Amino acid sequence: MKKYYNAIFLLVFISLIAKTGSSSDRFVLIFFGEEQGALAPCGCFEGQLGGISRRDTLLKDYETQGISAIAVSTGDLIKSPERQEEIKMEYLLAAMKEMGCILHNLGEKDFEIGLQALSFASQTNTIDFLCGNIEINSPFPLKYKKYLLKELPGFNIPLKIAFLSIISESLIKGHLLDFIRVYDPVQSLTPVINQIKGKADLIVLISHAPMEESVEIAETFPEIGLVITGHGIEDPIESLMYVNNTPLLSHGTRGRYVAVADYVVKSGSIRNTSVDIVPLDDKYAASEKMQVLLKQYQQTLKEEDLLSNLPKLPLEDGNFYIGSLACGTCHKKIHAHWSNTSHQKAYTTLSDSGQQYDPECISCHTVGFGYVSGFANYETNRNLAHVGCESCHGAGGKHIKNITDSYGKVNENGCLECHNFDHSPKFQYPKYWGKIKHPKEIPEGMSENTHGG
């Protein structure tokens, strides 16, 4: 019997030790935002960061370790008030719901989508919308909170985190001023902090503002334990700083990084152990749920036929696109050379990845998209698919009518429209030009002096 009781005592003792050092005493806050419509890396080059799929995997990794991960969105889901951005907002909110995101802080880009769309999103989503220093004058009711007091699940004692929110007045401009009034952040935060004192074990401020404004707020309120801020910081790795003992950091833009704050619960209190900016690279595998969501997004773009329905600009002086095959009628050697370059496969790279209905991608993989007579969709004018002659040289309609007129001079600036830093960061003009430079060819019966090309 004594051996039996000794065994029971040993088991209880071991379980207590295990519990004391277990991951249930730990939780992380994960912040992301300023996606500006970036649901996933575009795929233009290897090594791209970000995307909802990798973010979901990061959250699931913590869950697998038994660590509570609380996801928070800090604002600016979209970048402009077009229909495609509205669709993106719908899918980003759906992704956030799947990830268990507890709140979305409103940024100035979110307001630009329009109060009607934003009101609908706030009324139909379970995610709390937050903004602590604004007043909205609109016939469309926006459902949002000044702050959120969130109880942490899974702990033996009640623990609460207060999430506060402000937006900088400097970010609300133009037509937004017609229906949004922004109040001084310090004056808005003072009564809230006084109200939650004694109720919150940790106070977190989501400051949708430049870093210098957030520093001033942190200096004013030492009660704040963490500030997520730094509006418009492209590379957030070096953004971490401290005001007294309060960490301030940014997650950067376009969803390429997340800010992670790690905490342990000891003796009934919350203690920060680390803060970090984590790049969402290919270390994080694709999430199956998010991949399904991304396919649904592309399907929505196809069903709405945004390619055909987007407004189209007229070309100057009645010019029009003709397609590379028409160019090849006279420039046979050049056309044959082009047919063996990567430019001739540009549209195929989109169709192979299911992105051929995405207006943001299609413009750099076809000829003349966004212009009258330019590419509208593959069914209508497949002769304008891929990066063709007119992508570099300009519309050729007037040239084939009068081949003696000056036409088609190219330079590096034309390349940079698509080979920019976001899509082609390793672009070097001499190197890339060498890959696609075609032989010189004057049509039969013409000379350099009479041919305008």
What is this structure, in a nutshell?
With 453 residues, the chain is of the alpha/beta class.
- How would the global form be characterised? elongated
The CATH topology of the largest domain turns out to be Purple Acid Phosphatase, chain A, domain 2
Summarize the main sheet: 6 strands, mixed
Please write the CATH class name of the largest domain: Alpha Beta
What strand order characterises the main sheet? 4-3-2-1-13-14
CATH architecture of the largest domain: 4-Layer Sandwich
Radius of gyration: 28 Å
Share of β-strand residues: 15-25%
How many β-strands, per DSSP?
14
Which regions are unreliable across 5 or more consecutive residues at pLDDT < 50? 7-23
How confident is the prediction overall: mean pLDDT?
90
Quaternary state of this entry equals: single chain
Give me the CATH superfamily of the largest domain: Metallo-dependent phosphatases
Number of continuous helical runs:
17
Strand-pairing-aware structural class: alpha/beta
Helix content: 25-40%
> Span from first to last CA?
102 Å
GO cellular component, one term: outer membrane-bounded periplasmic space
GO molecular function, one term: UDP-sugar diphosphatase activity
Domain Cytochrome c-552/4: 326-394
InterPro entries: 5_nucleotidase/apyrase, Cyt_c-552/4, Metallo-depent_PP-like, Multihaem_cyt_sf
Q: How does this structure look, described?
A:
This protein is α/β, with parallel strands linked by helices and 453 residues long. The protein has two domains: 273 residues, Metallo-dependent phosphatases (Purple Acid Phosphatase, chain A, domain 2, 4-Layer Sandwich); 125 residues, Flavocytochrome C3, Chain A, domain 2 (Orthogonal Bundle). It is 34% helix and 17% strand. The strands form three sheets. The protein has a six-stranded mixed sheet with strand order 4-3-2-1-13-14, with helices on one face. Strands 6-7-9-10-12-11 form a six-stranded mixed sheet, covered by helices on one side. A hairpin with an 8-residue loop joins strand 6 and strand 7. The protein is elongated, with a radius of gyration of 28 Å. It starts with a helix and ends in a 17-residue tail after the last helix. About 4% of the residues have low confidence. One of its GO terms (molecular function) is UDP-sugar diphosphatase activity. This is Putative c554 cytochrome protein. It holds the Pfam family Cytochrome_C554.
